[in-house]
Description:
It contains 9 helices and 4 strands. The protein is mainly alpha-helical. The chain folds into 2 domains: 1-95, 2-Layer Sandwich (Alpha-Beta Plaits), CATH 3.30.70; 114-193, no CATH class. A two-stranded parallel ribbon has the order 1-4. The radius of gyration is 22 Å and the shape is elongated. The N and C termini lie far apart (60 Å).
Amino acid sequence: MQQEIRRYGDQLLQGGGAPIEIRVGVNTGDVVMRPLKTGDSSTEYAPIGLTTNLASGMQAVARSGSVVVSEATRKLVEGYFQLKAIGPTKAYKSLLTERRKLLHERTAQAIETIYSQRLEDHYADLAYHYRSSNNAAKAVEYLRLAGEQAVDRGAYAQSRANAELALKSIERLPEGSERQRAELGVRLLEGMP
């Protein structure tokens, strides 16, 4: 694919056109398809979810003319292609902070969509992703819920840690009744055994 694009790009340049390059991010996993109505009454589908968001992030860190694959994809294609490791932290750290925050929020939204019938199994993950995003309200909500779960399991230190993180997230909320309600919920969590 890359060779074809290079060849096509060379043809464009020879004809006086602009150069063309691509970069590709590939991930493997389940994808949720969201129907989108178009102006002409037809329906198109857009992929959403963890798999799609990670592929988008992989593409964002790829150099022009390269293909970056996730660990899940690497396991499937190893031996069929020559692969060079770039390391997970290098790829993650190279994402711009705002892009990272957006990816965390989209990941959390995908978890909410995919596991809507069993959200309680994912409170800690949701708390982490929303805390790493710009959505402080959701971060507080899931930190509180994860803290309540920790109390139910007798993991009081984890519950206190969640409450502390929730209070820090509350500082990012605008002043008002919603912020006061959120803080009250966290303060009640602090008072649990």
